[in-house]
Amino acid sequence: xxxxxxxxxxxxxxxxxKYLRHCPRQLWLYTRGYRPEGGSDLVAFGExxxxxxxxxxxxxxxxxxxxxxxxxxxxxxETKSSRSPxxxxxxxxRHYCLLLExxxxxVRGGTVHYPLIRRTTDVPWNEEAREAxxxxxxxxxxxxxxxxxxxxxxxAACRGCSYLDYCWGx
Length: 170
Known about the structure:
alpha+beta; globular; Lambda Exonuclease, Chain A; two-stranded antiparallel sheet; 4-stranded mixed sheet; 6 strands
């Protein structure tokens, strides 16, 4: 089997898990260097929301992942510019919980903040969540190791995705 584009020395980050749950094809393309996010107005908007919301927080850089912030008691916080909660966001927080737990931190769970709609969702951290996070890692590694890209989703599911032109362009 050919070497994984992820590389043996680089772990899975939150973006890998988020892309896996959003669209496996997006994950596959991302790990091969296709990065249209830089030209995406939606991504730029998300960065502005992140930079102007919760300005007193400090990112936690784990090397392979960057957590928006962690509060006392080891509660992970992520900020999203989306107007609707997504299972991909919860999966990303569970992945961060797993990464911190592997570093010896007694994690309590996480919260995803949606400032544009003034909502939060809590992400529990328990045995079931740990298993889901480990399964997501296995699935992500399988997608990344695949020689062929996963099938594209329906065009309607791709609305707003920065990879839309690549997957659906003529």
